[in-house]
Amino acid sequence: MKQILINEDNLKEEELEGTVIRVKAMLINSHNEILLAHNNGTYQLPGGHKEDDEDMEVTLIREVKEETGIDVELEMGPFMQIVTYDSDYFGTSKKMCSKIYYYIIKTDEVPNYHETNYDELEMQTEFNLLYTDMSSLSSFLDEAVEEGSLDPNIGREMKLVVEEYNRVYS
Fold first, then answer.
1. Is 125 helix (H, G, I), strand (E, B) or coil?
2. pTM of the full structure
3. Which three-class secondary structure state does DSSP give residue 6?
4. Which of 9, 23, 84, 148 is most buried, judged by most C-beta within 10 A?
5. Fold (CATH) for 2-169
6. What number is the average pLDDT over the span 78-98?
7. How far is it, in rounded angstroms, from Cα 26 to Cα 157?
8. What's the confidence (pLDDT) of residue 170?
9. Cα separation of 118 and 108, whole Å?
10. Dihedral in degrees, nearest 10, Cα atoms 61, 25, 38, 153
């Protein structure tokens, strides 16, 4: 599994106040399209936060179901991890470590909005799903950052994931 550390604030591990663990899914169909979520003004891969005693794979299956309505089975563990040290985690002034584990899920199941379970923020910010071709995903992400529909930090992380996916699986 490829691991990348992003530490632009030059924080030391002992300075961190906590760790947040999230999982994200690259849901790719047989047409080589990837499913993206758009909400709260940015694009992202489906996924979310690990609950306290929850296994990461259980978290991923639960989050994919909640956000897409798709039931998935995992065939392998994460292929990539991005660890970010942040001195102002989401504007809280907390020095936090964020660990995101990325999984690849091949499926031709399509979103089922009747089976989703959006949280309050996702409902308020009009959670939407869309497919884009994997071959043009990198340019799609660049354009989304330029037009302001993708947070630059999330865009950078997604591009790192796409680059690793292409390096390993193309």
1. coil
2. 0.93
3. strand
4. 23
5. Nucleoside Triphosphate Pyrophosphohydrolase (3.90.79)
6. 95
7. 13
8. 76
9. 22
10. 130
CA pair distance 121, 72, nearest whole angstrom? 24
Residues 46-62 have pLDDT tens digits of: 999 999 889 999 999 99
Extract the tokens encoding 64: 């994919």
DSSP E strand stretches across 107-155: 128-133
pLDDT for 75 equals 87
Q: List own/partner pairs for 10-13 with CB under 8 A and 24 or more apart.
A: 11/85, 11/86, 11/87, 11/95, 13/97
Of 27-31, 108-112, 121-125, the poorest mean pLDDT is in 121-125
pLDDT digits (tens, 9 = 90+) for 90-117: 889 999 999 999 999 999 999 998 888 8
Is the alpha carbon torsion for 135, 137, 142, 146 positive or negative? positive
Give the Cα separation of 47 and 70 in Å (integer).
12
CA distance 112 to 16: 39
Question: Can you give the residue ranges of every domain in the chain?
Answer: 2-169
- Rounded CA gap, 168 and 145, in Å? 25
19: exposed, middle or buried (Cβ count in 10 Å: 0-12, 13-18, 19+): exposed
Evaluate if residue 119 carries a pLDDT over 80: no
